[in-house]
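User: Here's a structure from my thesis project, written as structure tokens. My advisor, Dr. K., wants to see whether a designed sequence matches the one we expressed. Can you design one independently, without my sequence as a hint?
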């Protein structure tokens, strides 16, 4: 990924298809603290900046928005929702346990720390709609003004960006 002659779109593709899935493998099943989520976001930003040959002090949020790469928390919430929904599709002990935990949440609002339903609620999703309607959620960033994103996209995808001493770089 750090090959200087590779285009930004190639590096983005490598990140989204190989690196990020490897980084997040199995994370939908593990309880993550806010500190851990923050560290994962930092790893993503630093890796992308390093592969693009940018300074460590470059703004990661602008870079992610301009490359249209979703935040780690958004990707994890989608993975958790997909996993939770798939549990309810099969008649297994996991489905029975999650049915019990969902019924407990609906009747008393009680959540057990470390469970998947707790993670779904923590991400701000409705466990009932995720369990029975699926996990078709939009995971876009859009925290940065559109003008900044357009300018960065112009630079990152420019043919001269891969040349370290060019004006675009």
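Assistant: Designed independently from the structure alone:
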């Amino acid at each position: 990924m750090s090959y200087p002659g590779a285009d930004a779109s190639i590096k983005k593709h490598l990140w989204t298809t190989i690196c990020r899935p490897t980084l997040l493998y199995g994370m939908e099943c593990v309880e993550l603290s806010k500190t851990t989520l923050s560290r994962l976001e930092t790893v993503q930003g630093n890796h992308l900046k390093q592969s693009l040959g940018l300074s460590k002090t470059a703004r990661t949020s602008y870079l992610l928005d301009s490359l249209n790469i979703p935040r780690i928390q958004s990707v994890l919430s989608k993975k958790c929702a997909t996993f939770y929904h798939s549990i309810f599709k099969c008649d297994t002990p996991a489905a029975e346990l999650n049915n019990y935990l969902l019924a407990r949440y609906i009747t008393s609002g009680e959540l057990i720390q470390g469970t998947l339903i707790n993670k779904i609620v923590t991400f701000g999703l409705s466990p009932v709609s995720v369990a029975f309607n699926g996990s078709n959620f939009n995971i876009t960033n859009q925290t940065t003004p559109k003008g900044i994103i357009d300018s960065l996209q112009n630079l990152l995808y420019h043919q001269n960006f891969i040349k370290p001493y060019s004006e675009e770089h």
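When you compare it with your expressed construct, this may help: The first helix runs from residue 8 to 23.
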